[in-house]
Amino acid sequence: MDKSQPGVTSDQSRRVVYSSAVDWWLAVLLMLGPAICVVVTAVALNQGKQQEALVCLLTGAGVLLITGLLVIPCRYTITGDTLSIRCGLIMTRVPLSQIKQIEKSGSWLSAPALSLRRVKISTASRFYLVSPVDRERFMDELATAAGIDTSADSESTAESTLETESNNA
Predict the structure, then answer these.
(1) Is residue 120 within 8 Å of 8, Cβ to Cβ?
(2) Burial of 155 (0-12, 13-18, 19+ CB in 10 A)
(3) pLDDT of residue 113 exceeding 90
(4) Which of 155, 97, 160, 91 is nearest to 124 (CA)?
(5) Which pLDDT does position 149 carry in this prediction?
(6) Which of 146, 143, 166, 165 is nearest to 154 (CA)?
(7) I want to staple 98 with a disulfide (CB 3.0 to 4.6 A). Which of 31, 112, 123, 141 is the partner?
């Protein structure tokens, strides 16, 4: 197990697991519904409305359960031939041989990612958005595993950044 990076584990069989990074505001948003139900339950109990309190408490517990089933765990596993993307009960496997491009992204599109510091993984037919804890290391490991040369991408990104900066000057 690799303990040098939090949220990253690996073993001898070439299996590296990256946990999803979590933005603080998204964690607050996911917990807001159940938290409101707890407050409303307390108010209803204070007013002597036990039945309404029970309904609200069960609603909050249901929302928390469904959120947990759809979000926990959120992780990305690179094996010898596959990238597995898991978010709650939903799991997708992407053969490494189908990956064409890997790039940074800040997309707001819905994805199995709990942060907006994302990685866009493109295949011939679609793309996947993920948000690993150590984005740079994940991109390097995935590119190596998929046999993608990222040096050309880095050079073209650096060139376009220089062009943009010189045009703005």
Answers:
(1) no
(2) exposed
(3) yes
(4) 97
(5) 81
(6) 143
(7) 123
